[in-house]
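Protocol step 4 of 6.
Sequence for O-antigen ligase family protein (Lactiplantibacillus plajomi) entered exactly as in the expression construct, tag removed. Do not edit the line below.
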Amino acid sequence: MKANRQPKPILLGLNLLAVLPPVGIALLIYLSRWQWLELLRHPQRLRHDPVLWFFGGLMVVTGLNLTRHSPQTVLLSLIMLVVVLNLWLLCRFASDSISLNTCRDLIIRFGLYITISGNLFHWISMPAWLKFLSGNLLWGYAANQNRLFGSAYNPNDACCLMLIALGLALVRRTITAHAKPTIHELVTLTILGIGILQTQSRTGIGLMAILFVTVLFIRYRRHRVLIILIAGACLALTLTLLPRHGTLLATLATRLSIWHNSFAVFTQSPILGVTYYGFSHQYQLLTGTSVPHAHDIFLMLLASFGLVGGGGFTILAIRGGWQLRQIWQRYRPDNVQYLVVTLPLIFAYGITDFVLSSFQVLVIVLLLFAYWQRETVQQKIRRSIKKNSSEKKVTS
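Step 5 output, structure tokens:
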């Protein structure tokens, strides 16, 4: 069977990801089901895709755990990795067939829907099955019930998605800075900002303030003094609006304890890890308490997949950051501006929480990474063409 080659079903799945998350996730998994066959037909793609090598390494170390940990958790982890691998290949195809501007607008609408639906759902009584179908069923601590999460099941996941949407909306505004901001743009930025505040995510609110200052600096770097003043005002406003500040120290202590214990889980099996779905069980055996993940993307990969997971992720992050920096300094195309803002934003949020456990966040992150990889490949092709044309001129 052939892998899906039509972008319209993918767009439908991405839109349903916001409105009916289980349906959208199921559709995208269905559309990606034969992507691995395309990889077998064209194995040369492995040479140009470090993300594929990364996933391949995770699958190998997970498979080697079959005799060391519960077969059920190992097999579930392998199935999950195959699904994610197929989704990555589908996102790569989407980045070639769907423009980044289309994807940008879709993600911005996603963020707006989370804010609007979260406020509407608060006043609507729903049965449990409808809450699950619409994403309005809280996953996590009951204390988060009063925080906005819209159709994202969890306020921290919702905040991450809205931060990405806000970053894209801000870059879109700066790219067209020669024109006056439209009412639509101002309303979009306002709704996303309010939504992030309503999630009560302290990390999210802090990153939102940094995001506004960073985008201003990128666009108006000549006015450094003004930007410094704005940064000071944003800092004061952030400290004023910071929610749940009374529990800040207690939350920080809990998070530090989770990180310390997660690293201890890693030290028990540093080479092969404890598998993705085996992390919670191993954490409970070690501490007597249960947590779903390490609340840190690096520690979660390190504990789950050992040095291959932690080291591979570090290499991808450093390599990607270096490539983005080079492209930004040499060319500064509009597409790269979106990635320069959003990818570090995702990484920064991932330091304090493992939001990739949400398939909604995971798909959006994979999609943005696919556009990043496409952009780096295109820049290599342009440099090669420019180099060849220069050599021809010299020889002639």
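Step 6, annotate. The chain has one domain: 101-389.
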